[in-house]
Amino acid sequence: MRLDANLPWELWPEVVRSAVYLYNRTPRYSNRWRSPYEEFFTRVAYQLGVVASPRKPNQTHLRTYGCKAFAMTDDTKRHKGRLQRLDPKAWIGYLVGYRLSNIFRVWVPSMGKVISTCDVVFDEYTIFDGSKKQVMDNLMHSTLEEIQSWIRTDEAVSDSQGPLEQPQYDEAGRKRIPYPTPPSTPPAAFIAQWMSSVGYEQLPPAAAGSSDEGQDLVLPHSRRIQTLGMDLLRKTDRAKPVDHRVSLLSERDRLQSPLNALSLATVAKPRIAAYKADPTARNVRIHPAYIAEPWAAAFIAGLLAGNVQSIKGVRVDDASLTRKMMKGYRPHLSELPPPPSPNSLKLNHPFYDSFKKAEEEHLDSHKKTKSWTEVPSFRARREGIQILDSMWVYTYKLDEQSRLKKCKARLVVRGDQQNNVTAQETYAATLTGRSFRMLMAIAARFSLELRQFDVANAFVHALIDRLVYMRMPRGYSRQGTILQLDKALYGLRISPLLWQKDITEYLTSMGFLPVPHEPCCMLRDGVFIFFYVDDIILGNHPDKRAAADKAVEELRKKYTLTGGEPLKWFLGLEVIRDFEAQKVWLSQAAYIDKITRLVTDRTTRHDTPMARIELLPRKDLATAAEINLYQRKIGSLLFVAVNTRPDVAFATSRLARFLTNPSTEHQRAADRALLYLYHTRAFGLQFGGNDNLVVASDASFADNTVDRKSSQGFILKLFGGAIAWRANKQDTVTTSTTEAELLSLAQAAKEAQFLVRLQTELGIKLEDSTITIQCDNKQTIRLVNENTSQLTTKLRHVDIHNHWLRQEIQRKKIRVVYTPTNDMIADGFTKSLPGNKMRQFLKHVGLVDIKDKIVVEEGQIEGLLNRLESM
């Protein structure tokens, strides 16, 4: 750090403190890319219960170490000399450390001291080179004789710079590494003058004849740190051999990119963008050599050693990962460092080059689509329109096995700055889970082909319907210039609705007809298209392949489509098909692998997701950390429970009642549900079977002892697969089992009628148009079927005459039949089942073990090993 910044040796205390400060805020590979700061403070905060989220260090204030700084003078802070407009308002100094996130340590050479200030502006492309003209900001107060004296001193130094470059020794006789001298202006005289002015002792002169040895270690500041070892060894033939031998790896092995668009830079990459690497350094192989100094040997060895960690008994390090990537290895998500925070891409990030290239490609795509127009900034001020900030968002694009495909960068608008936008202007419909499952059931039954496409930069295809100004992106801005948006960018709150209108209008112009009850699905000539934002699924019967291809060609005329492969993944759901058996399975095994990391010990196995003991509210107050952790667990469970795993619906519903004040028992119950999912993650939701529509409802009367409300649930199955289900607590207190069953029956009937209408709109008609609902309570069936005059007085508190369900039964739209409790498929939505009944429930809802259905392609065995383990 000191050498690269050209700082004097006497500032070593500041350099050491800064090194520790930066080290504590640097993610470590050996710590799963968490920094020591985050690890320590998050753990302490969780123990004290004073934080609701992990404490990641703030790095937005970090600047290039040693860069030029303009610190406001004391007189300026006190508003003195305000009439002297041409006088300097800031000291010229250099960044040497940090006190707080907004207080910096700045070395001011002209003052001869280090100051702490928050009123400072940095020039990150300039560092100290020892030249007096860089730091003398008070020449206007000096006499002409003093200035001429300084010039003569500099000229004299230039003529006799040899002795000044000799190595120096401390009082103990140990040789001290000389201050690196820039090739242009020698700073030695000025540094000596500055040291004497602040009271430092002059060091004894070096012995004659040793200047060459010291000069070997002087580093040009424009050289990358990766080539530091080469610079140290360029003149080793003149150095005296000692016993410090270091074998250096090839620069080509360390730096060459293994992927076309990716490059894994070393951790020690410099942060000053103006510095360029030696173009010949990549292909130079350095052979084992003798290093003249012990510190140099230790430094280079540490630089090349990498971060070592033991993963499943195998020692790996950064250099090893680099070599594997050069051979075509694509790292897993667990091996990758966190992507840069929004708008915080730094040169020291291992994938800086890839993210920077992604930025440039993203901007090029906006140029092609003409997303904006550059205008002067005064136009927005003149019109009184808010100028929104822009922000870079960085992510990794992964394949289906969570392995790296490429780095992505997207320019978005700051959504939190947008005012005066109503809900009607921002709401955009999305494909519901039940509609997606119905489409999968139809695809399984009729052997439909499903292809997936992605619209590149979907939002920017939609024209914007109002005047919006945005600041230019960071790193590409120009003074006095802003952007007038012509297309809907990501981050604009109105963009989703504009995009939905655009694609719907274009599909309508192509002849597609919308499905009334599902605005994200459209039909034409036996081809259906359903979309979720920019993900488009095209479905067709094999006989309609030509019509489907024609639709794709028409879409490509306006949108840039990628993909076209058979549907395998959709919104984190894995789609597995067997065309011969006419089966489709939906699985979330990969997602379950991820969420179970919230549980510390994953070895415990449970046959059921929840114990049969009722959970009660906590009496005292939970800490913020406990609440945050519990909410993360329940949120993770909910995404599984509503998509592919109806077997955990009841457990998740009951656990969700304690989100605001969880206890230790609630935490253990959530862990049990997660562990149950982990050990059954090979289960998939199966579609394909008979053509019947099966609807079942059930209720558990007053099973909640706190408020005496009843639990209810229902399930709908079509073509052998579960389309919709729900487990919840009733809103009102019922006075009998019959009444509780009646409310549950009405809920199931309403959902069934909606899905039947949707099914009809999709062109699917069943032989029996009457909806048959299973119920295990004979009194409830009698209540809705018999005439009012025949009912006993005990049921008069139930409103029968005007009840909607009774009306639908009389119209013969719904039929209610009795099913014994042991055969009731909705039983698992109202109570926790024991092991044997749980296995029967899994069979009823269509959850089957699909471990043998997972196809291991060549090169994917390692990626699937963890998923198949313990299944």
From TrEMBL:
CDD domains: RNase_HI_RT_Ty1. It comes from Alternaria tenuissima. Residues 388-597 form the Reverse transcriptase Ty1/copia-type domain. PANTHER family: GAG-POL-RELATED RETROTRANSPOSON, REVERSE TRANSCRIPTASE TY1_COPIA-TYPE DOMAIN-CONTAINING PROTEIN. It holds the Pfam family SH3_retrovirus. InterPro entries: DNA/RNA_pol_sf, RVT_2, SH3_retrovirus. Residues 67-133 form the Retroviral polymerase SH3-like domain. This is Reverse transcriptase Ty1/copia-type domain-containing protein.
